[in-house]
Design goal:
6 helices
Length: 179
C-alpha cells in the first residue's frame, strides 16, 4: 500500500508517487518475490471476485475448477519472471503454496461468517486525518473488503514478502488489527 511504502521506503514513495519516475525496459522486471506478491493479489482477486458469487461454497467451487487456469493466466499477465528457466521450480512451489493459501483463506472467510464485498477496491485522492496538515492525498487499493453477518466492514490486507517475521510480529503485537 502507499502508506507502507511511505513508512518502509520513503525514497521509493517519493520517486513513484510524487515525482512519478518509473523504471523502464529490463529495469522494470520485478524481483521474483515482488512478482509473486503481485500475482498472489491478482489470483486472490480473480478467485474471490464477488460478482462471480460471494458464498464460500461458490468460491471453493471456483478454486476447485479454475485454480490452475487462473494461476497460469495470472503468471503470464504479471509474473513473467517466474517463467524464466531459472525460476520454474520457484513457480511450481509458488503454485502449490497459493493453492493452499486460497483454500485456507476461503475456510477463514467461512469460519468467521464473512462475505466478500470487493477485491482490489480502488480509492483515489484520499486525505487521511494523519496527513491533513500536509495535505497529502493517497491512492490505493484495499485488497479485500468483506462484511460480517451484522454488516460491519472487515478489511483484509494481504502481504507476500520475504520479511514474513515483520508481519508475524505485527499480528502477535496486535498492530495489524484495527476497529
Amino acid at each position: 500500500s502507499s502508506i507502507s511504502t511511505l513508512i518502509d521506503n520513503p525514497f521509493d514513495y517519493v520517486f513513484n508517487k510524487v515525482i512519478k519516475l518509473r523504471k523502464l525496459g529490463s529495469a522494470a522486471m520485478s524481483a521474483v518475490f515482488t512478482a509473486k506478491g503481485t500475482a498472489a493479489h491478482a489470483i486472490i482477486a480473480k478467485l474471490f471476485d464477488p460478482e462471480k458469487g460471494d458464498s464460500p461454497a461458490a468460491i471453493r467451487n471456483r478454486i476447485d475448477s479454475d485454480f490452475d487456469k487462473v494461476f497460469d493466466e495470472t503468471v503470464l499477465e504479471c509474473g513473467g519472471i517466474l517463467l524464466q528457466p531459472e525460476n520454474i521450480s520457484e513457480k511450481n512451489v509458488f503454485k502449490k503454496d497459493m493453492n493452499s493459501c486460497v483454500i485456507k483463506l476461503c475456510n477463514l472467510i467461512e469460519k468467521n461468517g464473512l462475505s466478500v464485498v470487493a477485491c482490489e477496491k480502488e480509492y483515489k485522492d484520499v486525505l487521511l486525518p494523519e496527513f491533513e496538515s500536509q495535505e497529502i492525498l493517497f491512492d490505493g487499493f484495499i485488497d479485500m473488503l468483506l462484511e460480517d453477518q451484522s454488516g460491519k466492514t472487515v478489511i483484509f490486507d494481504f502481504k507476500y514478502s520475504p520479511k514474513k517475521d515483520k508481519y508475524e510480529k505485527w499480528i502477535k503485537n496486535n498492530k495489524s488489527m484495527h476497529d
